[in-house]
């Protein structure tokens, strides 16, 4: 049997190598085709892997592949080991599928950029690390992928490194992520201390025996893991890097900062669900943070004017949904939302990219408007995505969001508060996304004449992936239709991973009621956006005038960046300068040099004895002889 | 195993090469080329011999291998006694690999007193290898001190504007430490009454507890200065900034490891109880060093100084690993010594390359040069990430095992140390951003040449090692492991708490009137 | 009894000469009193049955070497020390202190134990007198101590050359 | 015959007087003469010990000491002459050339 896992993993590597060796000379077209080609093949391999899994009995759906012993010290052994189970299979399909589409799209988007070859190398490398992340069968291999995607994210955000903002944003992303990674690392050390291994399977087996449910150790581990996840998945308080990450090329935002990498945190927690299950406190924290994040980010998204930043905060908010789902124990709902989100958010980003491409880099929505005529495919697909994310029946987002809201309400870890947060978030989601849609594609055109003349729909290589994703955004949610027994395919597929899953069944009427409510919320949000941005001529400024303080607060993202700068970054920098100039040079080194100076002082004092006069030397010599004589004869009687 | 005296060959080949250079003139260009070629040939030969040692190394064996022994000064129990184990082998390989790389780098960079320079480097290699293989205190000390002289010359002759200050500081500081060690060695010699300088003999029977503290302090202080452990680090930035690139590479790559190696080989196993008593202090200092070095590195405006302070931080990890007293920490420590040698060595080479083009190392003089020097940028980024400890590159494996070991011993220290991982990313990436990225290159930087073939060849092996050790560290780790395991047992031994009762001595004859006794001590006990 | 008398006489002469050397302000007188001291020493050697050494003391020391000193003193015309203050203010006191201290130490050693604990040699005074002091000395000197003897010859030779080279007036 | 102690006392006296001379006197020639005194004090001790130990070694050493003293006197006086030529003085207190 061909090793499917290896195949999936190594295809992107092959792409990287081919482009490294030949890409520079053969040019961007070649590089783009190679990159997209290997992605298509990897997708095919992922599908093959998926069917391989399906071919196995439900409880044995796990394919392992141990490559080699990576770190082996004493009893502590970590293998470069990979595994394909339903959870990683779903992730793999998303990564390679959506990834392939984005690669194709990139061929058009990056056309003419002088760094295009480099871009495709980075992109393939990213996919490799992302696959490592989801396929790794222990925490450490996962961590390799985890850091690797961070690296690629760093490189791709700072892809246009001549822009100071871009390289700054890349650095910020990496460093903020590192703070999360630190917690992840510590969690791993604790796991090593308790289990002596980092293998998922072994820890799963041993966890109930070695950990006290609700005990301190498991709570700390889970909170640390969550902190790591919060870095990657941009949760409070570590979400500040994601909006800045929009400095990267737009397809990168679609792939890394919407569809795949940012969901790694959610994946990590789903992967370690057996630990979270043991810690109600940690779960509660996760849920609260997720809920808070989804509200805060959604509120910021409502007032941003940069099209990509709206989407970025939207992503943060949607990630908040997933995290909250994890927090209430609805793992498969989280993965479900992860799946649908990757469709519609990638689509939205790529649509935005198409707009930006058409407008030669313009990103301010206030200078757009009425583009639907010029960009028919883009606007149509974006509209579908908007409906999907707003949660309109029967599009993808409806089902996944509904699953989360339902779980938030009914799960024994949930509660009305979480449901309320989710519902308010859903309202805001519908509002901001349609605000974006209306401001961009409809209404009055605010473009300059010059821009209008150059306006053009993107080439087919870019619009075709949009269309595919539009279909997926429309129908992607049907894999998780609730109510009817057996219709929730995804839940069933993931059930073996999450230990049987199967939430308590409720009255069908209750479920339907819930669905109706969430549908109503979505429609309400859309209506509000329509009311404000299409019907009213004054747009949002009316609200801004009514609550100026609050508006400014939200518009400036609650001043979180400024607060971090003032409270953390500047003090550390000042401290460092003080340490260097005052402590290191002023105290430590001065002490060292002072010691040297002291010796010199003694030396110059002793030098006074060396008068240079022969006589004084003679006197001293004789005196010395006398002392020695006294000493030697002291023992005699 | 072959019967060739491989270690002796390896240690003294560079010395022979250096001595040969005396007979080669360096007055003209051809002569200089000859000098360089000869020294390169000898460095490569040494590398080949060390490769043979590596190939012939017995795995799953904790003791000393390739042992050679010859009487030297039998009167005092001094012998020429060399050998290596899994702890010294990686460092030996690091030395033999870095030396030819440094020679190659200097090929086109050093034009002043070429012959003396090459000789100094070769002598230095002999000194360093000698330290790593010595199994006799006396021999160890001879190499240990001998090593200082070529380094002193390298800094003092080919260094920057404040080279004399830096060289003297370096020399005096390390010398001050090693004198203490000498005293401790002699004390040990007389105390045990073993009448031998054989390190292994002394390792087998640790001195009683009452004495351990002082002797350990003397040894450890000497090594702490060399490492350098905070707060003995201030000679390092000065030495690095003033040293020529080759000097910095060797200094950071190998010589700093002398300190940690010394701690590991001598100070800790010789005085295990004292080492355990001192462990909290050393762990505290190590952790302070990690955080402090990183913080200070962050605000440096000179790239080289930044890298120098990052060394303080990185070596803090090694010390932390050693003082964890467990297998993970020890193996990680050894591995990290090698890793740091590779990545920091490469960083210094990179800084040297850019310095020789622009004659400045101020970060603010650069910016956006990734555009004009793309290949350079790639190497720089990879090396920086290796230094940051990105998984898949070498730094990670060492740091991870060290921290895992330290966590086992003391979670608090491990957590604080791990924050150094974040800070490393901060200072490295910030530096990268300001040097390579962020804006268009200024006019002065527009004309910069990208790396030439020679520079490519200098960096490529190091980059390959970074990937190799990051992805598959096993070939080194499984050589370290048995020795590290034995070491861990050694440092966890218990020793006699008090001095054993003295053997009855011969009653002394009534003191003669005149000086008949040999030493003052005998006259006045 | 006569030997004892001779000893005290010669001891007094010697010590008086020595005191003269140190105390007389004129170097010329110092030289002369040193000669006196040396003659006294020769006498002491005689009381110790060291006839050869006594003769050498008179001929070489009191004769040749002291004449050399005398020459130099005359040559340089060193009449008296200039009466400038001493560099070290307590010099005289220090000198006396050291001198007395040394003397005290030696006295202490002399009177603190038996002096002759070593093994007796093969040349009692009677036997030496029988054979002849000079003969015995010469025999030992030219057999057991041949190498030092020759070395001393070389030393004197070098000394002569050195003195010539040093004292020669440079041509320039 | 006088006992050994008496000879040694004379020797010690000579030596101490020599030491005082070296320290107190400023004329280089006198200093050299004082040194000669000390040498001779040693000689006397050697010969006395040799006599009382039935050994010739004392006299032999004295023989060598005399040889060395002769050479030393020659060289020393030559140096003195040189100094006098350069500085018009043989005052040792004015000799501070040993200082850097």
Give a quick summary of the entry.
The complex is a heterotetramer of chains A (637), B (525), C (172) and D (100). Chain A contains 26 helices and 2 strands.
Question: What do you see in this structure?
Answer:
The complex is a heterotetramer of chains A (637), B (525), C (172) and D (100). With 637 residues, chain A is mainly alpha-helical. Chain A has 26 helices and 2 strands. Chain A is globular and about 115 Å long. With 172 residues, chain C is mostly helical. The longest helix of chain C is centred in the middle third of the chain and has 26 residues, at 51-76. The mean pLDDT of chain C is 84. Chain D contains 3 helices and no strands. Chain D has helices at 4-24, 28-52, 57-87. In chain D, helix 1 (4-24) packs antiparallel against helix 2 and helix 2 packs antiparallel against helix 3 (57-87). Chain D is elongated and about 50 Å long. Chains C and D meet through helix 1, helix 2, helix 3, helix 4 and helix 6 of C and helix 1, helix 2 and helix 3 of D.
Feature tags:
heterotetramer; C: 172 residues; mainly alpha; D: 100 residues; 3 helices; 77% helix
Layout of helices and strands, plus pairs?
The complex is a heterotetramer of chains A (637), B (525), C (172) and D (100).
Chain A (H helix, E strand, L loop, with lengths): L3 H23 L1 H27 L8 E11 L2 E9 L1 H24 L6 H20 L3 H19 L6 H32 L4 H11 L5 H17 L8 H4 L5 H10 L4 H8 L1 H4 L3 H22 L5 H21 L3 H28 L17 H15 L5 H15 L5 H26 L7 H6 L5 H16 L13 H6 L13 H28 L5 H6 L1 H8 L4 H48 L6 H20 L4
Antiparallel strand pairs in A: 1-2
Helix pairs in contact in A: 1-2, 1-4, 2-3, 2-4, 3-4, 3-10, 3-15, 3-20, 4-5, 5-6, 5-10, 6-8, 8-11, 8-13, 10-15, 11-14, 13-14, 13-18, 14-15, 14-17, 14-18, 15-16, 15-17, 15-20, 16-18, 16-20, 17-18, 17-22, 18-22
Chain C lengths: L1 H22 L3 H21 L3 H26 L14 H20 L14 H7 L1 H10 L3 H22 L5
Chain D lengths: L3 H21 L3 H25 L4 H31 L13
């Amino acid at each position: 049997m061909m090793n499917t896992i290896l195949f999936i993993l190594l295809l992107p590597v092959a792409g990287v190598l081919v482009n490294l060796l030949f890409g520079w000379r053969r040019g961007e077209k070649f590089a783009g085709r190679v990159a997209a080609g290997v992605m298509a093949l990897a997708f095919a391999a992922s599908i093959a892997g998926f069917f391989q899994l399906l071919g196995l009995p439900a409880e044995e759906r796990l394919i392992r592949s141990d490559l080699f012993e990576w770190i082996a010290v004493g009893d502590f052994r970590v293998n470069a080991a990979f595994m394909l189970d339903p959870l990683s299979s779903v992730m793999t399909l998303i990564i390679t599928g959506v990834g392939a589409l984005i690669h194709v799209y990139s061929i058009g988007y990056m056309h003419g950029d002088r760094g295009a070859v480099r871009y495709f190398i980075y992109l393939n490398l990213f996919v490799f690390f992302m696959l490592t992340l989801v396929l790794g069968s222990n925490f450490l291999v996962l961590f390799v992928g985890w850091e690797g995607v961070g690296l690629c994210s760093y490189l791709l955000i700072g892809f246009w490194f001549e822009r100071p903002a871009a390289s700054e944003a890349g650095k910020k992303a990496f460093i903020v992520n590192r703070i999360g990674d630190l917690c992840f690392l510590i969690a791993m050390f604790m796991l090593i201390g308790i289990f002596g291994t980092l293998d998922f399977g072994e820890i799963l087996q041993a966890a109930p025996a070695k950990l006290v449910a609700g005990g301190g150790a498991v709570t700390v581990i889970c909170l640390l893991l969550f902190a790591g996840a919060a870095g990657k998945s941009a949760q409070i308080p570590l979400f500040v890097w994601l909006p800045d990450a929009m400095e990267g090329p737009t397809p990168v935002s679609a792939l890394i900062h919407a569809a795949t990498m940012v969901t790694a945190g959610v994946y990590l927690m789903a992967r370690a669900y057996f630990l979270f299950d043991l810690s109600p406190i940690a779960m509660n924290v996760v849920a609260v943070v997720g809920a808070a994040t989804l509200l805060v980010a959604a509120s910021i998204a409502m007032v941003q004017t940069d099209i990509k930043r709206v989407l970025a905060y939207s992503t943060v908010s949607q990630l908040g949904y997933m995290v909250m789902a994890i927090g209430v124990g609805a793992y498969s709902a989280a993965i479900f939302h992860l799946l649908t989100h990757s469709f519609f958010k990638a689509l939205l980003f790529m649509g935005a990219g198409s707009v930006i491409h058409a407008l030669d880099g313009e990103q301010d929505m206030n200078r757009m408007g009425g583009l639907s005529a010029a960009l028919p495919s883009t606007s149509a697909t974006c509209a579908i995505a908007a409906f999907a994310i707003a949660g309109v029946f029967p599009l993808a987002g409806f089902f996944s969001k509904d699953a989360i809201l339902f779980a938030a309400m009914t799960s024994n870890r949930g509660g009305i508060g979480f449901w309320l947060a989710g519902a308010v978030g859903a309202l805001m989601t519908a509002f901001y996304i349609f605000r974006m849609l209306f401001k961009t594609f409809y209404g009055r055109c605010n473009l300059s004449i010059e821009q209008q003349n150059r306006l053009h729909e993107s080439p087919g290589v870019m619009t075709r992936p949009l269309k595919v994703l539009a279909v997926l955004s429309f129908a992607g949610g049907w894999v998780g239709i609730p109510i009817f027994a057996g219709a929730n395919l995804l839940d069933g597929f993931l059930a073996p991973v999450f230990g049987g899953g199967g939430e308590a069944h409720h009255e069908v009427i209750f479920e339907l009621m819930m669905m109706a409510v969430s549908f109503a919320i979505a429609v309400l949000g859309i209506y509000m956006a329509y009311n404000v941005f299409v019907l009213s001529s004054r747009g949002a400024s009316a609200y801004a005038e009514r609550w100026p303080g609050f508006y400014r607060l939200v518009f400036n993202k609650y001043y979180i960046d400024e607060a971090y700068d003032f409270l953390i970054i500047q003090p550390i920098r000042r401290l460092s300068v003080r340490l260097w100039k005052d402590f290191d040079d002023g105290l430590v080194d001065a002490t060292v040099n002072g010691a040297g100076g002291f010796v010199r002082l003694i030396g110059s004092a002793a030098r006074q004895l060396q008068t240079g006069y022969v006589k004084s030397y003679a006197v001293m010599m004789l005196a010395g002889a006398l002392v020695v004589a006294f000493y030697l004869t002291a023992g005699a009687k | 195993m072959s019967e060739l005296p491989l270690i002796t060959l390896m240690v003294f080949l560079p010395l022979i090469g250096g001595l040969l250079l005396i007979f080669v003139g360096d007055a003209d260009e051809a002569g200089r080329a000859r000098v360089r070629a000869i020294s390169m040939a000898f460095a490569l030969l040494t590398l080949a011999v060390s490769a043979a040692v590596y190939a012939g190394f017995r795995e799953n064996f904790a003791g000393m291998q390739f042992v050679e022994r010859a009487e030297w000064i039998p009167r005092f129990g001094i012998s020429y006694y060399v050998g290596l184990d899994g702890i010294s082998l990686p460092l030996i390989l690091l030395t033999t690999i870095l030396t030819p790389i440094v020679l190659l780098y200097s090929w086109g960079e050093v034009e002043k007193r070429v012959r003396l320079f090459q000789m100094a480097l070769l002598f230095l290699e002999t000194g360093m290898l000698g330290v790593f293989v010595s199994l006799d205190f006396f021999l160890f000390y001879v190499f240990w001190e001998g090593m200082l002289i070529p380094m002193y010359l390298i800094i003092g002759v080919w260094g920057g504007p404040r080279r004399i200050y830096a060289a003297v500081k370096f020399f005096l500081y390390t010398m001050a430490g090693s004198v203490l060690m000498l005293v401790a060695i002699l004390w040990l010699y007389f105390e045990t009454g073993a009448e031998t300088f054989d390190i292994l003999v002394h390792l087998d029977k640790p001195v009683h507890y009452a004495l351990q503290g002082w002797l350990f302090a003397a040894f450890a202080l000497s090594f702490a200065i060399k490492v350098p452990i905070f707060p003995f680090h201030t000679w390092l930035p000065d030495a690095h900034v003033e040293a020529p690139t080759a000097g910095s590479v060797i200094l950071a790559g190998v010589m700093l490891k002398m300190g940690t190696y010394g701690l590991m080989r001598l100070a800790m196993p010789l005085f295990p109880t004292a080492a355990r008593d001192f462990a909290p202090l050393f762990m505290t200092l190590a952790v302070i060093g990690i955080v402090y070095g990183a913080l200070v590195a962050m605000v440096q405006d000179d790239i080289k100084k930044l890298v120098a302070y990052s060394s303080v931080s990185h070596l803090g990890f090694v010390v932390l690993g050693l003082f964890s007293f467990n297998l993970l920490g020890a193996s990680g420590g050894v591995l990290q010594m090698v890793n740091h040698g590779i990545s920091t060595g490469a960083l210094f080479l990179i800084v040297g390359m850019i310095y020789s083009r622009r004659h400045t190392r101020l970060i603010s003089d650069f910016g956006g040069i990734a555009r004009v020097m793309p290949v350079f940028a790639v190497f720089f980024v990879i090396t920086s990430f290796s230094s940051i400890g990105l998984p898949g590159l070498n730094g990670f494996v060492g740091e991870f095992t060290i921290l895992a070991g330290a966590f086992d011993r003391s979670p608090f220290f491990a957590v604080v140390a791990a924050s150094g991982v974040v800070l490393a990313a901060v200072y490295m990436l910030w530096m990268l951003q300001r040097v390579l990225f962020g804006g268009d290159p200024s006019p002065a930087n527009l004309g910069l040449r990208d790396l030439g073939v020679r520079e490519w060849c200098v960096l490529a092996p190091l980059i390959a090692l970074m990937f190799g050790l990051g992805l598959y560290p096993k070939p080194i780790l499984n050589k370290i492991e048995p020795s590290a395991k034995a070491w861990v047992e050694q440092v966890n031994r218990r020793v006699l708490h008090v001095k054993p009762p003295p053997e009855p001595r011969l009653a002394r004859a009534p003191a003669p009137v005149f000086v008949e006794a040999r030493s003052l001590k005998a006259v006045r006990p | 009894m006569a030997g004892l008398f001779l000893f005290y006489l010669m001891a007094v002469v010697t010590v008086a000469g020595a005191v003269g050397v140190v105390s007389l302000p004129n170097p010329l007188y110092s030289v002369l009193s040193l000669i006196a001291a040396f003659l006294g020493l020769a006498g002491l050697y005689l009381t110790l049955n060291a006839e050869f050494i006594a003769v050498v003391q008179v001929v070489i020391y009191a004769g040749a070497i002291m004449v050399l000193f005398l020459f130099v003193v005359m040559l340089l015309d060193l009449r008296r020390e200039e009466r400038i203050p001493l560099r070290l203010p307590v010099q005289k006191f220090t000198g006396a202190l050291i001198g007395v201290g040394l003397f005290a130490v030696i006295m202490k050693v002399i009177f603190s134990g038996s002096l002759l604990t070593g093994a007796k040699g093969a040349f009692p005074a009677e036997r030496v007198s029988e054979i002849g002091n000079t003969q015995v000395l010469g025999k030992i000197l030219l057999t057991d101590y041949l190498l030092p003897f020759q070395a001393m010859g070389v030393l004197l030779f070098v000394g002569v050359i050195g003195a010539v080279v040093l004292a020669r007036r440079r041509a320039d | 015959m006088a006992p050994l102690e008496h000879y040694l006392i004379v020797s010690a006296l000579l030596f101490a007087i020599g030491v005082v001379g070296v320290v107190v006197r400023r004329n280089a020639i006198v200093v050299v003469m004082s040194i000669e005194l000390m040498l001779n004090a040693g000689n006397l001790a050697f010969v006395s010990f040799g006599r009382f130990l039935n050994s010739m070694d004392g006299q032999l050493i004295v023989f060598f000491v005399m040889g060395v003293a002769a050479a030393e006197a020659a060289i020393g006086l030559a140096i003195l002459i040189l100094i006098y030529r350069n500085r018009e003085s043989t005052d040792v207190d004015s000799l501070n050339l040993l200082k850097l």
